[in-house]
Amino acid sequence: MLEKVDLQKKLEKEEYRKRMDELAPRLGRLQRECQKWKIPVMIAFEGYGAAGKGVQIAELIQALDPRGFQVYPVKNETEEEKMHPFLWRFWTKMPAKGRIAIYDSSWYRKVLVDRFDGKTSDKETEQAYRSICSFEEQLTADGMVLIKIFLAIDKKEQKKRLEKLLDSKETAWRVSKGDLERNQHFKRYQDMNEEMLLRTDTAYAPWHIVEATDRKFATAKIYSIVVQMLESKIAELAEAARRAAQADMTVKEMDDQVPSASVEDQLLKESVLTKADLSLSCTKEEYKEKLKKLQDKLQKLHGELYRHRIPVVLGFEGWDAGGKGGAIKRLTQKMDPRGYVVHPTASPNDIEKAHHYLWRFWTDMPKAGHVTIFDRTWYGRVMVERIEGFCSKKEWQRAYKEINDMERDLAEAGAVVLKFWMQIDKDEQARRFKERQENPEKQWKITEEDWRNREKWDQYEEAVNEMLIRTSSPYAPWIVVEGNCKYYARIKVLETVVDAIEKRLEEKKQEEKGQKKA
Amino acid sequence: MLEKVDLQKKLEKEEYRKRMDELAPRLGRLQRECQKWKIPVMIAFEGYGAAGKGVQIAELIQALDPRGFQVYPVKNETEEEKMHPFLWRFWTKMPAKGRIAIYDSSWYRKVLVDRFDGKTSDKETEQAYRSICSFEEQLTADGMVLIKIFLAIDKKEQKKRLEKLLDSKETAWRVSKGDLERNQHFKRYQDMNEEMLLRTDTAYAPWHIVEATDRKFATAKIYSIVVQMLESKIAELAEAARRAAQADMTVKEMDDQVPSASVEDQLLKESVLTKADLSLSCTKEEYKEKLKKLQDKLQKLHGELYRHRIPVVLGFEGWDAGGKGGAIKRLTQKMDPRGYVVHPTASPNDIEKAHHYLWRFWTDMPKAGHVTIFDRTWYGRVMVERIEGFCSKKEWQRAYKEINDMERDLAEAGAVVLKFWMQIDKDEQARRFKERQENPEKQWKITEEDWRNREKWDQYEEAVNEMLIRTSSPYAPWIVVEGNCKYYARIKVLETVVDAIEKRLEEKKQEEKGQKKA
């Protein structure tokens, strides 16, 4: 894409002023419109060193209300960031609905500068492209406007600019060794940029190449691109609202009208849960003995996890009163509290609702060496949100792939990822509900909502079955825990966690040995 | 996904009959509905050996009108198929609108059996996943119903079936060495299947896992899946038609309402064509001398191409009277006619219209060692179809990526891919049109349509600019040929082709050397 670009383009001052006088106030108005329509916007600046990313961002924000945007310079990963999947730092810097985030270089760094520097291997490059495509697809599907701007200058112009910067003490520090090296091996670096542009130029998140030799030309073109992208999104939403009104529906109701493509016949459907043998049990004595052994082992393993920098993600789902809390309590009882955290997942609050549904989970993911336990998880999307209509059918149908992709990102970053489904039968649930109601110590645990959910048992069972099949993977398996006997269930959870950690530790030690040898 | 599946599921005979008595006629009706709505359908059967793909396909087609479907067994690639990108054989076996194609194992073979057998390297596996995702996305976006069925049995059941087949002379031949090996290393093969299911289970082309231990259960479930998928597509089209009627528009007009996101300001836009220096020329003497040399060289290279099995794809686009025909004539003048073919691309005929717009080009792609020249190409999608409204805005906007992906498939299969834009200015065109009209020998070359197109020069220029930038790649570059002087243009085309072939030959020889060593 780059080689066809005319880098000599320029705008005379007068032409430039004429355009900017029109574009700047228009952009200001559009920002307010985006707030009104609750449109989140990400603007990523990529391009060659010294092409003027900083200058252009400074120009762009002139027209914006500073309360509505934030600029993120993207540099080498911090120690903290290195301990997460590479997209984590972008998930945590994601604009809420109605806000604008601007990135001075972006998630593409992984396949550009880092790749050039040999920090990203060939295998990681392929993984990164998969992750990036999934990231951009799910954000835009969720309503994000993703504006990707590439500032292009040629080798000669870049050299001239770098030399000029080096000439003065005030600016010399801005030129890194890497900048000079990428200038020297311009062709090699350009090939990587070219590959990146071609592999990620999609209809939903297209690249905009900006000829950046002339600063004024670039500024006007960037303004024009941002204005057009925002206007087109607003027009799209307005049109959707108009159509929905015409059909006397909400936009979500329209989206819900995706025709169903799932097997309707119960007998032919998945039945993962019915397979669980709920008669499995163990005695109190067995339980006590095993519990102690497993907890001691886990305590030891927890230290090893830390030393070998392995992150662990444990998700708990299950029927109300299925024993999630009890299992989590036994799991963490002897673990060092500085090394784990338990996140109870409630309905999303306002800030969370203003983001992609996976956002809050991404931000809570553990760094390498730490353990994060989620009491209820991102699977709410394909269970309660599906059943209660909190998201559209379109949305939960694509969530399986989105969730598989997120978990794959975690696993590729070295994490142990396990998901537990605490299974009990309907009778056992009734017994426990009753017990809770009758016990003043436990009354707080049971609410009207629990009874309402119980009435939807069959709907949940259908959703859970589909979820277990479509999202159980070798890198992030579902474990159905037979939970009618609490003792049995707790031991099974502990055993599974211990086994998985031991296995991952063994792999990691092998990897580390291999690295030392190499 | 597989490990959660309950392979013990079965249907009693009576239950089975009850279901089939309802499903079979329903499927028959749906096939007719699909013809009416012009829906093309692909049904891919994957799954373990001896899981019953053949039996189940035989059951499925019972309900279908044989004039409306075709079954393709997918075996080892033939010699012919090996000489094309791996998806080529599926492009050429694609159903027309309203027809059903059934594949007994499919394009997934590349990442399953072939991968297991070591025929697909790690790098090729990644490439194949990219190609497959692009393939499925663009087909479904174009209206294809893609039904992917995975038949699952376990290792023990498979072994039992294989042994039973081996027991009888009549059936022993059906068990291959590979079947036995995959049974022996079931886990390793299962991991590949699992990865495949997870990486390609999308909202637009989901996987359906069918428990295949009990034949009757599997048959009923497959019928049910196919019925549901077709019904949901028909409901979607009916709904789109209803909404369009409500808005007093056609469905295409609705699709055209994608808001525009391109820069509106002419000055800020791409101007690849204006950069072409049309004063470039060469004298008749220079021309004759160079032409002879280049043609002789190309003749020699053509033989080398054949021996080294390199496919060559040359596309020609340009203004009417831009000199495409003349350039192609000089290019092929001394080439061995058994080794090249020229495809003039006219408006699509009825059969072509009943397929994806890339279908006719895929089927015409050269096999390894051959040269195919397209006089006008697949770029019609983003030029004439865009401007004349023959496709919707949504369609041509996503075409850039689709085309880049197709050309990448070709390049990854080892092809030289070059695209020439024959550039002349408007005055030169007028001169040539007039000349054609006045010369009785050339009158056939000029039609009313040429004059009409000329009136749309500016619209075309805009489309061509966008096309050149967004689809010029290192693996398939656009070459803008300064064409006011025909001599100059023809020499430039020949030189470019010769250079590119020499370069590719050099690479190929290096590869072959490397392979010999290894």
UniProtKB/TrEMBL annotation, chains A, B:
One Pfam family recorded for the sequence: PPK2
Family matches, as InterPro entries: P-loop_NTPase, PPK2-related
Entry protein name: Phosphate--AMP phosphotransferase
